[in-house]
Amino acid sequence: MVKPKVLTAVLHKEEDMYVAECPEVGTFSQGKTIEEAINNLKEATELYLEEFPLETDIKSIITTFEVAPVAET
Question: pTM of the entire structure?
């Protein structure tokens, strides 16, 4: 039996919607709730992977970084 792949979901809020991205695959989706956005991302990613399967296991590295402050207008 093939084990399911564990991928990353990165979410941010835009106005009244949550936008979800899977950085390993490059798929995006959205939803009115976090749960809906993740479910939609899962569906979009599964459909994408049916057409374009991953050739290797991807090991994600998640980190943060700082940027210099910029003047606000």
Answer: 0.81
pLDDT tens, position by position, 19-66: 999 999 999 999 999 999 999 999 999 999 999 998 777 777 888 999
The label of the residue with tokens 């296991």 reads 57
Q: Is residue 27 exposed (0-12), middle (13-18) or buried (19+ Cβ within 10 Å)? A: buried
Question: Does residue 44 fall inside a structural domain?
Answer: yes
Give me the number of domains the chain comprises.
Answer: 1
For residue 40, CA distances in Å to 11, 30, 31, 49 come to 12, 7, 7, 14
Query: Per the domain annotation, does 47 fall within a domain?
Result: yes
